[in-house]
Structure to design on (347 residues):
C-alpha cells in the first residue's frame, strides 16, 4: 500500500494485504482498474501485479470465499481448493497423540474463523470429519471429542467472561517421542520434582529419509558435488565472489545448499530479483550476452557458475548459530552485493 501515490485520482475503497496477496474493493469501472494496475506496475521495475476479478459476486482470497451480497453486505466462508487431497498426518504415524489431536482442534478453529456465520461452518466441519476418519485413519470418537472441545473453547474465548491467563512455564523440555507411556512418565516426574516446565516431544526421522540418505562412501554425480560443494550440506554460511567485478555476497541457510543455489540460479536464469545474488549475475549477463534465452524449466548451473566463485565459509551447529554467524560475517566484511537491494546490512 506504500506504493499507492496519493495523487492518483482513482484508488480502492478498501485494501487488505497478506504477505504478497492483496484484496481490495473497486468502485469504479474495469477500465479504470486496469489503469490503476498499470500505475502500480510502473512504480517498481521488477514487480508485476496480476489480478483476479469476481465471478458471480464471489472472489477467492487465500482460504476464504468472499461474497458481495445484493444488499452490499460482505460475507465470507471457508474455501478449500478442489485439488486438496483431504489427507492429514495419519493416526498410526509414530508421533505424539497431542500432535494428532492438535490437528483436529486447529483445523476446526480455522474453519469456524473462516465463516462469518457459524451455521455456514457445519458443512465444512462434516467434510473435515470425514477426511480425518476415512483418509487419515482417525477413530470417530477421537475426532468428535476434540472437535467438540475446540468448539467449546471458541465459545469461551468469544464470551464476555474474562479468563485467567495460563501461567508461563519456566522451562521447555524437548524429548524424543518414544511412546505415550514414556511421555506421561516424564511429565509425572517433572511434576513430582516441582519443576514448572512444558514437555515437547519431537518425532524421529522417517524411515524413508533413513533409507534414502546416501552413505559417505557413495559418490554423488550432481553438478554441485563435482564442483566440490556437498549438495546435502546444512547449516552453513557461504560466500560468493563475482568473477566479473570482484564484489562479494555472504549468505546462510539451514536447508541443503542444493536448494539455496537452485534459488539463486533460477533468479539468474529467469532474470528476476527474487534473490540479490541471482539478480546481480543477471545484470552482468545482460551486458555480456543480451541475446541469452533460457530454456524453460531447465537449469543452467554452468552459466551461473561462470559468474561466481562459490564456497562454504563456516559450518554451523544449528539454525540459531547459522544466522548469528551470518550476521557477524556481514557486519565484519560488509559485502557490496548484500546491500544492492537494501538487505544484509545498513551502512
Amino acid at each position: 500500500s506504500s506504493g499507492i501515490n496519493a495523487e492518483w485520482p482513482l484508488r480502492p475503497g478498501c485494501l487488505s494485504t497478506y504477505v504478497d496477496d492483496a484484496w481490495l474493493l473497486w468502485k469504479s469501472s474495469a477500465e479504470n482498474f486496469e489503469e490503476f494496475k498499470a500505475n502500480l506496475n510502473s512504480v517498481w521495475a521488477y514487480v508485476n501485479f496480476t489480478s483476479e476479478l469476481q465471478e458471480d459476486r464471489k472472489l477467492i482470497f487465500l482460504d476464504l470465499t468472499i461474497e458481495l451480497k445484493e444488499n452490499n453486505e460482505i460475507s465470507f466462508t471457508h474455501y478449500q481448493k478442489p485439488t486438496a487431497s483431504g489427507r492429514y498426518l495419519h493416526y498410526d504415524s509414530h508421533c505424539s497423540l497431542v500432535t494428532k489431536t492438535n490437528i483436529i482442534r486447529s483445523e476446526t478453529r480455522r474453519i469456524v474463523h473462516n465463516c462469518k456465520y457459524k451455521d455456514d461452518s457445519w458443512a465444512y466441519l462434516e467434510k473435515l470429519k470425514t477426511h480425518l476418519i476415512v483418509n487419515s485413519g482417525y477413530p470417530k470418537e477421537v475426532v468428535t471429542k476434540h472437535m467438540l472441545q475446540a468448539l467449546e473453547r471458541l465459545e469461551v474465548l468469544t464470551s464476555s467472561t474474562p479468563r485467567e491467563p495460563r501461567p508461563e512455564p519456566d522451562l521447555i523440555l524437548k524429548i524424543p517421542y518414544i511412546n505415550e507411556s514414556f511421555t506421561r512418565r516424564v511429565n509425572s516426574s517433572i511434576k513430582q520434582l516441582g519443576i514448572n516446565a512444558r514437555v515437547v516431544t519431537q518425532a524421529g526421522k522417517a524411515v524413508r529419509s533413513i533409507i534414502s540418505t546416501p552413505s559417505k562412501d557413495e559418490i554423488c554425480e550432481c553438478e554441485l558435488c563435482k564442483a566440490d560443494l556437498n549438495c546435502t550440506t546444512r547449516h552453513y554460511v557461504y560466500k560468493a565472489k563475482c568473477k566479473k567485478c570482484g564484489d562479494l555476497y555472504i549468505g546462510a541457510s539451514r536447508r541443503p545448499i542444493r536448494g539455496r543455489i537452485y534459488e539463486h540460479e533460477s533468479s539468474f536464469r529467469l532474470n528476476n530479483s527474487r534473490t540479490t545474488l541471482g539478480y546481480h549475475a543477471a545484470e552482468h549477463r545482460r551486458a555480456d550476452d543480451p541475446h541469452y534465452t533460457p530454456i524453460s524449466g531447465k537449469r543452467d548451473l554452468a552459466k551461473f557458475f561462470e559468474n561466481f566463485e562459490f564456497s562454504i565459509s563456516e559450518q554451523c551447529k544449528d539454525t540459531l548459530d547459522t544466522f548469528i554467524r551470518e550476521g557477524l560475517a556481514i557486519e565484519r566484511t560488509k559485502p557490496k552485493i548484500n546491500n544492492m537491494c537494501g538487505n544484509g546490512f545498513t551502512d
About this structure: The chain has eleven helices and ten strands. The two ends are 27 Å apart (CA to CA). Strands lie at 14-18, 21-25, 58-61, 64-68, 74-78, 171-176, 197-202, 236-242, 248-253, 308-315. Residues 13 and 27 are 7 Å apart (CA to CA).
